[in-house]
Amino acid sequence: MNEKQQSLLLESAARFPPPKGVKLSYGTAGFRADASLLESTVFRVGILAALRSLKTGSLIGLMITASHNQVSDNGVKVADPSGGMLTQDWEPFADAIANAPDPRSLLQLITEFMKNEDISFEGRQPAEVLLGRDTRPSGEALLEAAKQGITSIVGAIATDMGVVTTPQLHWMVRARNRGMEASESSYFHQLSSSFRCLMDLKPEGSRNHGDDDKLVVDGADGVGGEKLQQFKKMLTGLCIEVRNQGDGMLNEGVGADYVQKEKVAPRGFGPADVGLRCASLDGDADRLVYFSVILNKNNKIELVDGDKILSLFAFFIKEQLSILNEGEGKKENGFYQAHLGVVQTAYANGASTDYLKEMGLEVVLTPTGVKYLHEKAAEFDIGIYFEANGHGTILFSEAFLCGLEATHKTLLSISEGSAKQKAASRLLAVSQLINQAVGDALSGLLLVEVILQYMGWSIHRWNELYHDLPSRQLKVKVVDRTAVVTANAETVAVQPIGIQEAINAEIAKYPRGRCFIRPSGTEDVIRVYAEATTQDAADALAASVAKLVDQHLGFGSAA
């Protein structure tokens, strides 16, 4: 690193001193904290993003958001060239530079890291980073800090995309690195044209949503509500009313996280909405849940969560593959041997996993966390993953899409308008509509809507696919959470010795009982999840296993 570069880093870092006594850690959500503590961290993540761009020779994304957190919080995360999350290999470096106490320490860390990663400025194209932010008032100043970080690497280019949803920024990074235009208008155009294509391919006589059957969307008073309000004008055949689109407090009694956890209607929804199909986005529009309001005093709802969205997507895609396969027999090397897989975590409701398996689908469990789900889904020709919280997407392998495009071309020439040709067209359109970089509430919502119309289903019919088993989650404070070691996607505790056998003995007492424990990623607690055929049984199973954890590891404070 030459002297000019060293001086630039030292001078710019001196303008962003880290807050005293604050230690931050980069996780699945990037860095998140009270916005007043983040300026130095965001500046340093700007440097990391520029270095990542140099290392990969690709465009990198940097998003300022704290998703479903309260409005006073903010955060920052990096999007890799694929549009996915920052590689885990770089997370320790992110932690190290965020917590470096002064400019000299920071420079030393950067110099060592560049040497270890073989990053140089010579003979490489300049670093380029796309920046975006959500609607939080703190976002503008933090985005400026990120720009300062990026441009403290000589020659680096910072391109501000303005206020965008998190999935939009990830989509733009993926698009640019694939040689496509990366703008909000190109995002909206791709989603609306693929949605229109799917609407045109509905079977004759399938149900049309009219004004009396509109979709009402809770925008969480965040960026997603604002964007959907703009975008809905481009959507034909779908009547959408957007509420909570920025006129109230972000994530306060609104949003997918609130609706899914509390199982109540968000602010602005009530008895007048009984019978309507409703959906809720989270603060940065990367999560989506559906719900219907029911007549009661407590504002309770019928929730249609991420597990049900996954089941709907899996049902539809399996049907299209079946149409393509019809009468083909077994083609050993042919396109029709598409490997379709569904990926869940142990937190997925057991009834959803049973339903998917009964459909003949391959279901794989991974440890908790989007990065594990996404990675596993990428191993299939078509991989579908969702968490119950409404975060998920569908991934199509390049090899599968090449085969599908060739098949579609052949079908167009020999049997245009046939069931098979239409099925191939639908699958191609889904691959364009769904955001393959990351979970995206807007693209997910459009796919749900077109499938419901294709099937002729109401939200109530959809919700009847299966009935969730009652569940209970508890947490137990422990001295050391690392004393619990799990295996088999966190479903089995292998340490402490003997605890799994004791858990199995408790599970055996309850019909369709299921229970697992896992250490929290952030605090010294052990999380307990239990399921059974009744709520009382799920509560009792969770309580008895929490007591076991307490006896083995705790302070006598299961709660």
UniProtKB/TrEMBL annotation:
Residues covered by the Alpha-D-phosphohexomutase C-terminal domain: 475-547
Reactions catalysed according to its record: N-acetyl-alpha-D-glucosamine 1-phosphate = N-acetyl-D-glucosamine 6-phosphate
Pfam families: AMG1_III (PF21404), PGM_PMM_I (PF02878), PGM_PMM_IV (PF00408)
Cofactor: Mg(2+)
First-level EC class: isomerase
Family statement: Belongs to the phosphohexose mutase family.
Pathway: Nucleotide-sugar biosynthesis; UDP-N-acetyl-alpha-D-glucosamine biosynthesis; N-acetyl-alpha-D-glucosamine 1-phosphate from alpha-D-glucosamine 6-phosphate (route I): step 2/2
Superkingdom, natural source: Eukaryota
Taxonomy of the source species: Eukaryota, Viridiplantae, Streptophyta, Embryophyta, Tracheophyta
The keyword Metal-binding belongs to this UniProt entry's keyword annotation: yes
Listed name of the protein: Phosphoacetylglucosamine mutase
PANTHER family attached to this UniProt entry: PHOSPHOACETYLGLUCOSAMINE MUTASE
Annotated ranges, domain Phosphoacetylglucosamine mutase AMG1: 305-457
Protein function: Interconverts GlcNAc-6-P and GlcNAc-1-P.
UniProt keyword terms in alphabetical order: Isomerase, Magnesium, Metal-binding
Cofactor note: Binds 1 Mg(2+) ion per subunit.
Residues spanning the signal sequence: none
EC number, UniProt record: 5.4.2.3
Domain Alpha-D-phosphohexomutase alpha/beta/alpha: 58-90, 124-177
